[in-house]
Amino acid sequence: MKRLLIFLVLPGLLLATTSCFSTDESLQTYPGSCTTVMGRLVTNNGQIGVQGATVQIVWRKFLGSVAVTTKAKATTDTNGNYRATFFIKDAELNSGFYNVAFTVDTNKYLASDDEKLYLLKVERDTTIQAADYLIPRKAFVNLTLTNQSKLSDLVDVQFASAHGEPLLPSASRLIMTVGYTSDKLPGINPFAVAADQPLFFTLFNSRNGAIVRNTDTLHIAAGTTRTISVSY
Fold first, then answer.
1. pTM of the model
2. Handedness of CA 201, 206, 207, 209 (dihedral sign)
């Protein structure tokens, strides 16, 4: 059997190659030539696995309208690891693309409706080790403006943190922006931000026609609320 290794190999996971199960519309079991995807869903800046999340291997093709087939389903274990095995049909070998879709508890995790990891090369009779995928837990920020009466221009407050993959702040997918105007606070306050990992705070405001930029790095524990005062 060929092994296609992408990023990081997790030791101790055994492959069963005698058959595989596809959860597409035919619901058939296929003998041999299976494709297995293994990976890990993490939180806490990549240090803790997410247990009990739903993982789906999905094939998509655009044919004027979008064709979507769920090929396999799995659930993450206590360490956030998952393993899903499926069969690639002839029609899927050279068309469309595959992704790994994650579903978590949005009451606890700062997740969107589109948490996907794209698989760049998928073949039959192959084991793919996917990159870790990060979904932060939720914390909250309550923003206040200390001298709002002096405000004449827009004050822009941004919070950014690593999300998805790879686990690099510079590759952050998730950037939340909250703007102050002279007459109101943000529409939702307090609001959710990434917890238990570096949260990059940037404040932009305008003074005498010039843009002033201030930055800071915060760490907020999951489930807690931090009040941040912003001065114009």
1. 0.80
2. positive
